[in-house]
Predict the structure.
Amino acid sequence: METDENLNLIFYLTFGQKLPKVFYDLAVTFKNKGLTLVPVELDQLLDFYQGKKNVHVVVVTKNQFEKKAYQKSLKIINHALRSGKMFFYHLSSFSDIDLRKEKGRINNYSFISLPISIEVLAQAVKNSFLIKQNSIQKWPGGRRGRLPFEELV
């Protein structure tokens, strides 16, 4: 059984050994919003992703190094997105790597154009996170119809 803290995990996909400054700013802001930001590399994310129903991932590509690293991992990311178990929040100033342009509408992929205020970004991710968490736990069908017992007798 997952605890409430596990339900509020959002993973931050890293491409290098050092964490960028934006991670620390995002982590503090997300913590104030009730979410926990955890840095992971792609192989760690895939290990964690195997048995889970829904995994939320934030990736920031703000320079050429991160853009190239992101494009190298795109095949794996596309596979995870097609499975529907991974929700992907992509923050970038490079509009040419927006997956919606190639694949059309993808329900579990959000592209957020930079620059944006960290506070606005955190609120947008939290709103999307809560909507997706509630929609996963909600039964899509209606209630089974029943007749009152007095009418049958």
Notes: The helical segments are 4-7, 21-32, 42-49, 64-72, 74-83, 99-103, 118-137, 149-152. Residues 118-137 form the longest helix (20 residues). Residues 4-137 form a domain with the Rossmann fold fold (CATH 3.40.50.2300). The chain has one domain: 4-137.
